[in-house]
Specification:
This protein is α/β, with parallel strands linked by helices. Among the domains are: 259 residues, 3-Layer(aba) Sandwich (Alkaline Phosphatase, subunit A), CATH 3.40.720.10; 216 residues, no CATH class. The strands form four sheets. A nine-stranded mixed β-sheet has the order 1-10-8-11-2-12-13-5-15, sandwiched between helices. A three-stranded antiparallel β-sheet has the order 6-7-9, with no helix packed on it. Helix 13 runs parallel beside helix 22 and helix 14 packs antiparallel against helix 15. The longest helix has 69 residues. The N terminus is likely disordered.
Amino acid sequence: MVRIEGMEIQRRSAASISLVGAIAVFGSALALALAAPTVAHAESPVSSTPRVLIVFLPGQIKALPAPGAVGSSPQARARRTVTEQLAAQSQLSIGLSSPVQGRYIAAQALLDITQGTRISLSSYSPELPPPLLLVPDQRGAFFQGWLEVNRRAAAAPASIKPGLLAQSVKGGAAYVGVDGQPQKDAVVAADRAGRVEQLSIGSAASLADRAQTMLDSNQLVVASLPPDQAGDRELAALISRRRSNELLIVTRSPPSRRAVQLLPVGIAGLGPSGTLSSSTTHLDGVIAGIDLLPTIFDWLDVAIPTSVSGQPIKVIPGRDTEELLSLKGRLQVVGQRRFPVLWALLGGWLILTLCAVLAADRRGMRWAMRCGALAIFWLPSVLLLTAALAPSKLIELLIVVLGSMLLGAASDRLIAWPRAPALPALVAVSAYIIDLAFGSPLIIRSLLGPNPLFGSRFYGIGNELESALPAILLIGLGALWFGRGRSRQAAAIFAGCGLALGIALGAAQLGADVGGVMTVAAGFGVAVLLLLPGRLSGRTIALVVIAPFAALALLAAIDLLSGGDSHFTRTVLRADGSGAWWEIFVRRIELAGRGLARGLMPVAALVAVLTVALGIVRRERLLTPVNGDPGWRAGLAGAAAVGVFGALFNDSGPMLLLFAVFIAICGAIYLRGDARLADGRSR
């Protein structure tokens, strides 16, 4: 059924019109006579049948004049964001929606809503979805280019079904739009064949009326509001007319720009208004775009297919618009500041070294080597501080550079060489485990956090911390054990610390990083091997080799017993057969391979591997300042192993390799900062 206001209808002959009119009048009268006794009975199913209305809003709008406002003052016509627009509607539960995973494309965000699952664009071939054009026909409308959409999805290493949303709803979906505006949001109303069953394109002022009319005959309706005050009025009308059997979802239309997004969303019908959340994110105020499909299916009592990875949306009490805006603002700057701040810290280390050499020659250089390396070890803790403060870019840069350097110098002053790394290591690991226990509110806001803006991880540990924390802890434990030699006690202490860190990083209620568990197990396993006394037996080596897989089994048991609803639990432990596991494995390998081939990463990864090889070959010379101390040997070797094995166990392997090897290099620099080397007292 197509309804397009203003469409010119071809004129018929007067006789034909009269004949058709007479037949229509007679038929209408007969239908009314037959239906009259059962009107009340016929309306009951319509009023009780659940309905869903998805409304897409444009960008910033001009606010309607406030009550009592005079004329068109700047205050009366101030522009406000969609989040503020939704927050002004007290009936809506509000939140932010992560539209895609990884790189953002508006068309992919819409397709992900229709399929209820998503993967990174780099896993598709071709990466970008094809251009889609909505073409009206006598039945409704269809999208040109949908055949390419299905082919692209079929070739992806996952079970992806574009159009699953409308396909699974009885009678399909209808779309209501405004004449003269882009109709891209109609993608959400398309079924598996790219068809939209009913279409209504008309004036902005009639959108609410047309949407309600469509809801009378369709269980699922998608509508695109006009911009500015017209859209505000139509939204208010739709909210005021919402019936008890209707689930109303209002969200920002995915913008065309390429920057990563968090889209405002509001929902009415899930209970008293509050803040949105879901098991996909485990982050209050944030849901994923793929969570809309299972939420709609729950409302319409449609079985959720196994291919859907999204989770039903839930409402938690309380609405804090300022907190949502603050979270969104912080997450939007994390990616922009991450590497500039790290480069600034390295630049500060270089400046400190040059000044120290000018002031005290070789002795100053050794001091700067120790202080700079310790500053790197303090960096994760300082980044939690700036995450809590959320300062401006310049202030954050100064806090990171000056704070890390001052803490490094203080550690070197207070703790005798070579034990100083133990302090920043223990502080960092303790601080991060405590924050994980509280739901990682600071970690996700820190410059080394997982950054929910990219849609892959919304809480817990990200790739950078997955390698940095165990590497720092291994070096800290090695420094703490300095001078005590190899023993079963030492091996047990390292193993126990590795077990505790692995549980913290991998448990669903904490870090939720399954790759981190295997990475930690591999790094600490190497350290344990080097600390065991006597010659190594084949049995001991075999136990260390299987340690990562044993750690994975332990994690699975913990998640199942604790009821953790993590991504690992849903996609791996509850995977539907070996085929799903194979898809996960292939997807992770493909992502790691494409990450390795991007930009200068091949050169950087090769440098890291050669650095590890050089450390192994020159290990005796490297450890000369500590006379080959077993604790330091185990710490440095374990840190390097974290990078090497992390590259094998994770879809962002090259990044883990670089971070862990860099930490190991800083540990070696600290060792070579031995003051005795400045005057030749130690070789």
